[in-house]
Structures are given as C-alpha cells and as structure tokens.
C-alpha cells in the first residue's frame, strides 16, 4: 500500500472515529474559553493535534480522547495568553460553605439538569456557568452537559476521581448560588 493510500485510510478512519464528536469538542472549548471565535480556533488546533497523533489512539471511544486534547489546547492557550486564569485560589466563602441552597423552591434538587428544566430563562443558567471558576466549570460541563462518567472526566482533566466529585459538588453549589442570587434580583 502506498503512502497516499495509507494517508487516505488514516483520514477516513479519523473522520469516522473522531469527527463525529466535534459538537462535544466545540461545546467544551466554548465553555472553557468563554468566546465562540477562540473556541473555534481551539477546536481546529485540537483536531490538528488529534490527527497528528491519531496513529497512537487505542480504544473504542474517541470522545474522551478528543475532549482531552481540546482541554489541553485550551489550557495551553490560557498559559500563553492569560496565565492568571489557571490559578484560582480556593476561597471557602466562594467555593465552599454554601449549603442548603434551594434555588427553585422546596423539593427541587440543585443539579444543573433540574435547573435547566425549571428555569424560565436558559440564559440565566448560561450566565451562571460563565461565572464558575475554570476548574469547576470544566467539570460541570463535562458531567452535566457532555454526560461523561467520573472516570472519563478524571482522564480528560488529568485529576483524581475524588477531585472530580468535589469540584462537581462545589461547582453545582456555586451554580445554584448564582442562580438564586439572580432570581432574587429579578
């Protein structure tokens, strides 16, 4: 088999296995970057990185693999352009200690899925997600929007599963607190 046919076969396999996850890649990049144009650039860069390293891909599910590359491309961009984004100091008042918040009334859970179902204005939830520190926003988006498992999130974000769970819990509390505050203001 010639070099051209090997390259064409690789391109076809890449398209079949990886490119079906472009929506998830863009979603993650948009939430992390907070900018549609930067997200598009990041996804393009991530796809180039993925294609270059595609020969080393092993596994059945390319989605977590691609999302890992997207995440790393976002973090590389932040390191080069906005290094302050990568260091959010832990503040107990902001990141923890928010217990018992019932955003939408008695008996309604705090998970973002419930918030989306009950909120009159989806922009309220988007705004709340925008307010989350990067590490929390990333985990909430991967779990509650992209529906990755804890194990997949741990692999994508290169953090222990326990950290995934604590960031998810704190991120959801922060999300709920922001929504509650915005509802009080209206």
Mind explaining what this structure looks like?
- This protein is mainly α.
- The protein folds into 2 domains: 83 residues, RNA polymerase sigma factor, region 2, helix turn helix motif (Rna Polymerase Sigma Factor, Chain: A); 98 residues, Orthogonal Bundle (Arc Repressor Mutant, subunit A).
- The relative contact order is 0.11.
Task: Name its key features.
186 residues, mainly alpha, Rna Polymerase Sigma Factor, Chain: A, Arc Repressor Mutant, subunit A, 10 helices
Describe this structure in a few short sentences.
This protein is mainly alpha-helical and 186 residues long. The chain is built from 10 helices and no strands.
Low-confidence stretches: 89-108
Report Rg.
18 Å
**How many beta-strand runs?**
0
What is CATH's topology name of the largest domain? Arc Repressor Mutant, subunit A
What layout of secondary structure does this protein have?
Elements lengths: L2 H15 L4 H12 L2 H17 L9 H20 L10 H4 L16 H7 L3 H10 L2 H12 L4 H8 L3 H25 L1
């Amino acid at each position: 088999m010639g070099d051209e046919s090997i390259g064409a076969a690789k391109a076809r396999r890449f398209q079949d296995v990886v490119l079906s996850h472009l929506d998830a890649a863009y979603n993650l990049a948009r939430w992390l970057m907070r900018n549609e144009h930067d997200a598009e650039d990041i996804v393009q860069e991530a796809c180039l990185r993925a294609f270059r390293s595609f020969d080393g891909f092993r596994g059945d599910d390319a989605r977590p693999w691609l999302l890992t590359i997207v995440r790393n491309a976002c973090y590389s961009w932040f390191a080069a352009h906005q290094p302050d984004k990568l260091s959010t100091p832990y503040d107990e008042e902001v990141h923890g200690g928010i217990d018992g918040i019932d955003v939408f009334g008695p008996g309604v859970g705090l998970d973002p899925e419930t918030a989306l179902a009950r909120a009159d204005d989806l922009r309220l939830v988007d705004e709340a997600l925008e307010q989350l520190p990067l590490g929390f926003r990333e985990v909430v988006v991967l779990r509650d929007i992209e529906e990755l498992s804890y194990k997949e999130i741990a692999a994508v974000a290169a953090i222990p599963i326990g950290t995934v769970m604590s960031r998810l819990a704190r991120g959801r509390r922060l999300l709920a607190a922001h929504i509650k505050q915005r509802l009080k203001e209206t």
